[in-house]
Amino acid sequence: MVERSEGDRLGRAHGLERDSNGYFSGWVRELDAGSLYSLRLDGEEQVYPDPASRFQPLGPHGPSQVVDGTSYRWTSQAFPGPPERGQVLYEMHIGTFTPEGTYAAAARELPELARIGVTTLELMPVAEFPGQFGWGYDGVALWSPTHLYGSPDDLRQLVDAAHSLGMSVILDVVYNHLGPDGNYLDRFAPDYFTDRYPNEWGKALNFDGEDSEPVREFFVENARYWIDEFRFDGLRLDATQSIIDQSARHVIADITEAARAAGRRQQKRIFICAENEPQEARLARPVARGGHGCDALWNDDFHHTARVALVGRREAYYHDYQGSPQELLSALKWGYLYQGQHYHWQKKTRGESALELEAAHFISYLQNHDQVANSLTGARIQALTSPALLRALTTLWLLAPPTPMLFQGQEFGASGPFLYFADHNSELSPVVHAGRRQFLKQFPSIATAGGAERIDDPAAPATFERCKLDFSEREKHADLYALHIDLLALRRNEEAFAAQQAASLHGAVLGPRALLARFFHASGHRLVVLNLGDDLTLDPAPEPLLAPRLGQRWRLLLDSEDVKYGGKGYAEPEREGVWQLTACSACVFREEAS
């Protein structure tokens, strides 16, 4: 039954009727927008929030609130959604993106992101979760935007503001588990969950067992809901390897189809990307070809080899990467490095063939929320490598064919850490802290030095506060900021980079730490030469990809060691066919008539 809440009191109760499908429903005319209500199950004294609550103003344990999803007046009436190519993603955690940590405060910063070339925001999960702060991956009320960041209409206004600037917004959703605190779904029906499959975060969801159809419907409709009622332009599916479904048609295929149908009603394209640790390329194949219909996949392989190239350490899950020029070129041209080969760290093969996927199907990054936080101090990559190395590899990365994703603050070298934080209750918090310590012990440098005991307490407010961005660093680190802005402009304006055609990218290894990437294009070839090692002279230089075509010459467009980017200056890269590659630098050329 439904019980209306009035302050701390429960008002009148209304019974619900069971229909032929097993759902309970009824009309309660006393409830209008803003009203609070709870659900009471037969034979129980406790009341629960609505499993499909549109808002939990007092958190996941409190009453639900009636929301009118049609009352918001949109200012950007028509928006086409993300393009197939040309995207620059920006991963954002609303709670730490601004000092206020709200949807409204984030909206105020969007013009600057649009100005520098960001095209698509990727919001970390916003579904209601327990406590006063958290990453959002322990959401329990999947239809309710968390009250911690503002009202549902504040979230709509954030999306609206992005659209008015020509920016898309996609939402990170967690369909592989629910958090342990505030998760009442099993009180309504235990069939939501199953013990037939392992799940490292809790009970697995029942997508293929007895009575699984309503479970599938719950999550499929949730995906549709975010696009229908909030006008999101797509989704990022978290940890899809834990969405286990042995049905003839995988639930992810149903989710992508429902999301695209919602997009068609708004006459826009929908973008769906997925995280998948075992690197199952089928997720990005069309459903008609046996895939799941996603548009893109996160590419941890690129991150891992790039990090080894920048930092040098190969411990834990970086074990099977060398950070070599060959690996960097292969990851940027072919996506995953491991497409079925043996993977020593896991003692089994990793990945499946993805050679037919286009470059835009892979999302590449030097930072993301997981990889920054999976360390002793949550340090950003610039704190772990030299500024010159970071500038050089950033140059190659931001001009390469895969779709790049920046992690909030990366563009201006945010100095604050990004740590794991989660404000759980007094029983769960010590367990979560202990689990975090145990997880990070896979890194010998943390385990053997007793570093695990120094891992910041996820439940401490100070852990959360330290992760907030300081936008004054845009000025303090203006040189690094300028490099990102100029690179994004080159990516956007130079046709050979904008095309994102891996088939037109040809590369060569020039030395133990040096490579070139040449972009063939009808408008003229472009060339990126990267040297992550010491000064290197190529005399002779018997590599045909270094030579301009007949009647052409190379014109330098950018060098990462330019003093305006914080560099120490650079030698003239090429003179009469002899190449002088400055240490820890990257240079970018355009072919033009000689």
Can you give a write-up of this model?
The protein has 17 helices and 29 strands. The N and C termini lie far apart (81 Å). With 594 residues, it is an alpha/beta fold. The mean pLDDT is 96. It has 3 domains: 2-48, no CATH class; 91-488, TIM Barrel (Alpha-Beta Barrel), CATH 3.20.20; 503-593, Immunoglobulin-like (Sandwich), CATH 2.60.40.1180. The strands form 8 sheets. Strands 8-9-12-15-16-17-20-21 form an 8-stranded parallel beta barrel, surrounded by 4 helices. Strands 1, 2, 5, 6 and 7 form a 5-stranded antiparallel sheet that branches. 26% of the residues lie in helices and 20% in strands.
Instruction: Please indicate the percent range of residues in DSSP E strands (runs of 2 or more).
Output: 15-25%
Rough outline: elongated
Percent in helix: 25-40%
* Low-pLDDT windows of residues: none
Q: Give, in spatial order, the strands making up the sheet with the most strands.
A: 8-9-12-15-16-17-20-21
CATH H level, superfamily name of the largest domain: Glycosidases
Rg over CA atoms = 25 Å
Helices and strands: which structural class?
Answer: alpha/beta
How many DSSP E strands? 29
Biggest pleated sheet = 8 strands, parallel, barrel
The number of helical elements comes to 17
The CATH level-2 architecture of the largest domain is identified as Alpha-Beta Barrel
CATH class of the largest domain: Alpha Beta
Kindly report how far apart the N and C termini lie: 81 Å
Give me the CATH fold name of the largest domain.
TIM Barrel
